[in-house]
Design a protein that fits this description.
Keywords: Ligase. InterPro entries: AMP-bd_C_sf (IPR045851), AMP-dep_Lig_C (IPR028154), AMP-dep_synth/lig_dom (IPR000873), ANL_N_sf (IPR042099). GO terms for molecular function: ligase activity. This is AMP-dependent synthetase and ligase. It comes from Desulfonatronospira thiodismutans ASO3-1. With about 425 residues, this protein is an alpha/beta fold. The protein has a domain at about 330-415: ANL, C-terminal domain (GMP Synthetase, Chain A, domain 3, 2-Layer Sandwich), CATH 3.30.300. About 25% of the residues lie in helices and about 25% in strands. It is built from 11 helices and 22 strands. Strands 5-4-6-7-8-9-10-15-14 form a 9-stranded mixed β-sheet, sandwiched between helices. Strands 1, 11, 12, 13 and 16 form a 5-stranded mixed β-sheet that branches. Strands 21-20-19-22 form a 4-stranded mixed β-sheet, with no helix packed on it. A hairpin with a 2-residue loop joins β17 and β18. The longest helix has 22 residues, at about 20-40. The radius of gyration is 24 Å and the shape is globular. Bound molecules: zinc ion. Zinc ion (ZN) binds near residues 312 and 314. Zinc ion binds near residues 252, 254, 259 and 316.
Length: about 425
């Protein structure tokens, strides 16, 4: 059987708008959304009025920053505030197609429009094509994932095996008998299928027929990706989104970041102030999807990343999110500055004599103190380390040099021992 070409092709013209068209497109979509939401969502009206934000004054994309960010955590409380999910919705619950419940607990409304969750272009970019037989291994009840990921497959013209999670032996049998070509699920479940399949004596490349996999929901390493791609002889790409808004980004064949989905406008912001940061700086992903039913304008996801506007060989012109480098709530704010473990790791990478490290934060007398512990047998570059550290992280730590093996085996990058009593 000849394989389909899954490496090229663009689904819609929106994906290849040139820069000025793209700016205009965002401008029109946002203006339209803001006007509509202000008119029909009680919560948006309250929020805009409180911030004295007037939709008429929205002239450039930069004006969006005058709307306060909406923290995902706030949704739980807001949704309990009255009908139409606390006024966040612009229509009645009975006019929706489905209502899900995701952890939090937060209700996730799904409207009756086509491609509501916006994953179709992402699935096409991953490599799904008409005629594929796809096994969806996400749960189909309460949480939206299973049904959410069926929608793009239906649009592309694939047939779906709604397998849901678990029953690994049955999953493998179905894959073999139906000659399933596509997988949708978490990377760890695909790895589990590989291991179980090998235990059963299957040749994953000959007895199974997988050619493409869309994964999401977990971080994974490039090593895991290449292992799975080799084991099954498939293309594996990931998507990034939330149960509130659906698709936010997805990888193309060239896997150099996540193309921002064309149904959203994404900003990278300072987690406290909501002010957009410069290109390349790490901050919180703040997303506005062009969804008039459930207009979560400037939803702060709690995920940390950065944005890249450089061209991609695939031809798609949307900006790309880099890796998700962490969560806002696991990042320590020390002396008012955010300290991200990956930034510390970058500093340490320049000192090969440092075997392991840990940051400890305390606040004797209510004042933050940061100690950087490093393990090294003989360390002579103290001044250089402190200089680079302060340049990158903006704080000068107390440095403590330890003998190798002193830190506990499972060391947390940032140990926050502060108390507030
Ligand atoms: Zn690309």
């Amino acid at each position: 059987m000849t394989r389909k070409d899954r490496t090229e092709g663009i689904l819609t013209r929106k994906e290849v708008l040139d820069q000025s068209e793209r700016q205009k497109y965002y401008q029109i979509q946002l203006k339209d959304l803001l006007s509509y939401a202000y008119r029909y969502s009680e919560d948006v009206k309250k929020r805009f009025d409180r911030a004295q934000f007037y939709v008429d004054k929205f002239k450039t994309l930069g004006d969006l920053k005058h709307i306060p960010i909406l923290k995902k955590k706030e949704l739980i409380f807001l949704q309990s505030m009255g009908p139409r999910l606390g006024g966040l919705l612009t229509k009645d619950l009975g006019e929706l197609r489905r209502i899900f419940l995701s952890p939090g607990p937060i209700f996730d409304p799904e409207d009756r429009t086509d491609d509501y969750w916006g994953w179709t272009e992402g699935f096409y970019a991953t490599g799904f094509r008409t005629g594929d037989i796809v096994q969806v291994t996400f749960s189909y009840h309460l949480a939206p994932a299973g049904l959410m990921f069926e929608e793009p497959l239906r649009n592309i013209g694939c047939s779906v095996v709604p397998a849901g999670p678990g029953n690994t032996n049955t999953q493998l049998e179905v894959m073999q008998k139906l000659r399933v070509t596509g997988f949708v699920g978490t990377p760890s479940y695909l790895m589990h299928l590989a291991q179980k399949g090998e235990e059963k004596g299957l040749n994953l490349r000959k007895d199974l027929f997988l050619e493409v996999a869309f994964v999401t929901g977990e971080k994974f390493s490039e090593k895991v990706r290449s292992t799975l791609e080799k084991k099954f002889d498939l293309i594996m790409r990931q998507g990034y989104g939330t149960a509130d808004v659906g698709s936010i980004g997805y990888e193309c064949f060239h896997k150099n970041g996540l193309h921002v989905s064309n149904r959203t406008f994404v900003e990278i912001c300072h987690p406290d102030t909501g002010i957009p940061l410069k290109e390349g700086e790490v901050g919180e992903i703040v997303v506005t999807s062009f969804n008039k039913t459930y207009p979560l304008i400037r939803l702060a996801t709690g995920d940390l990343s950065y944005i890249d506007h450089s061209p991609c060989p695939c031809g798609r012109t949307s900006p790309r999110l880099g890796n998700i480098v962490g969560r806002v709530d696991t990042t320590a704010r020390i002396k008012g500055m955010f300290v991200y473990p990956h930034q510390v790791e970058q500093v340490m990478a320049g000192f090969e004599e440092i075997k392991r490290w840990q940051i400890e934060v305390t606040n004797p007398g209510g004042i933050d103190e940061m100690t950087l512990y490093i393990e090294a047998s003989s360390f002579k570059r103290e001044a250089e380390l402190l200089h680079i550290f302060r340049e990158k992280i903006k704080i000068r730590p107390e440095l403590q040099i330890l003998a190798p093996g002193t830190l506990p085996p499972q060391v947390r990058p940032i140990e926050d021992k502060r108390t507030w009593e």
